[in-house]
Amino acid sequence: MICIEHSEDMEAFFHDALLHYKEGTNAFKDKLPNLTQSFFDFTEACFADGAIDKKHKQLMALSVSIYSQDEYCIIYHMKGAVENGASEEEVTEAIGVSAALGGGAAFAQGVTLAKDAFEYYSSK
């Protein structure tokens, strides 16, 4: 992963990453529409408000994404966490929990990509 320094570069990076994910999803959906739609329906249900609100579900997903070093999901769930009102302190604690379980690799993703994604989405 490269360090993203300038806001124009950040905007292009995060926009392109999510666009790349959507393009891949659409290509997969063309070949397996029922499976893809079922997955979308399932994840939509998982992230709906319930006993745990959307913000905390996004923070949980962010921690798991960092732990598993899934860069697309780090970006996607950071966006979701910020859009659902997660503060910098909450995001930082979620990164810490992930690092406690995932060690140095999770810590590295948290203090680079996750941090950059928070800065980008919280400034929009």
UniProtKB/TrEMBL annotation:
Q: Which domain of life is it from?
A: Bacteria
Where is the Carboxymuconolactone decarboxylase-like domain positioned along the sequence? 33-116
Query: What is the scientific name of the source organism?
Result: Alkalibacillus silvisoli
Read off the Pfam families from this record.
CMD
Kindly provide the name given to this protein in its UniProt entry.
Carboxymuconolactone decarboxylase family protein
